[in-house]
Design goal:
370 residues; alpha+beta; HSP40/DNAj peptide-binding domain; three-stranded mixed β-sheet
Length: 370
Amino acid sequence: MAKRDYYEVLGISKTATEEDIKKAYRNLAKKYHPDVSSEENAAEKFKEVQEAYEVLSDPTKREQYNQFGHDGPQMGGFDGFNFGGFGGFGGFEDILSSMFGGRTRTSENGKRPTRGNDLRTSLTISFEEAAFGTEKELSINKYESCTKCNGLGAESKNDISVCSRCHGRGRIVVEQNSIFGRIQTETACSTCGGTGEVIKNKCSLCGGDGRVKKVSKIKVRVPAGIDDGQGLKLSGYGEAGRKGGMNGDLYINVNVRPHEIFQRDGLDIYMEMPITFSQAALGANIIIPTLTGNVNLKIPSGTQTGTKFKLTGKGISNSRTLDTGHQYVIVSLVTPTKLSGEQKDLLKKLSKTDEMSESIFSKIKKFFKN
């Protein structure tokens, strides 16, 4: 079968620029790649597109093709195609990356600085510590830069040499035959592990890693007003990076232990306060505990159970916004279970009075009479 015109294969004109050629090839390579394409004869079409791109992306081959067509002296066909030609626009891995959304580039060199891992831990504090802020010390087991070699990984700089196999690239080219022809792929150099360097005498403390694992003591300042489940971030307190890379960060999840009598809602505090029948009926002054000490609260006569009183500014203060909440006291009437004889007599006398004639109780009594 006669070969199709390369410009026709890529769907471009003979005046197409290098950028036009790359763009057309990228789109068609995505469309016909056998691993992802459902097109009929995708493998043959993919092979045809690759051959066309190899010729038209090379200025010399393109010029000869324009003069002589497929019979030109350098038109070696697909058998002469070299996957190294993909490097002109970022590598074949870029095509797969754009198709699947992942990072598949393999050209990264292990000599580059690598950021350390982030770490996560938790911290439990009391209700009062959350309200007023506190300082805690955490013990974190993490990788830190080796103090003996300062992250070098070797006993000295003279013990580090360029890898003779990959010549410092950290990558080696592997050739193999496939249904598409001879393919070149890059893999990490097994001699240097992708670093591009070989250490003759590794550091006796870190064994060449440049980092050592140890328990570190870290002081954490917990700000006032932090709530249960909120987190803190300590930048640079994660694990040490490699090759001079930045440290990771430390993320701390804060757990606040429940209080015996207080409940929190944002910056506000709620508590339930029991009062006696006589205090509710006659009124009283009672002592209320707050986070900053005891205060007096006046209970008006005739107070009903469930009544809510507000203590302004007695809630929690946020150290960042400087806002302060309130404390709400909800009174609940306590019914006595054990009465003395005198108390029983007094309650009997009270029950005979007419003080509730206009109350809801009298209305209910009238309803039943009707």
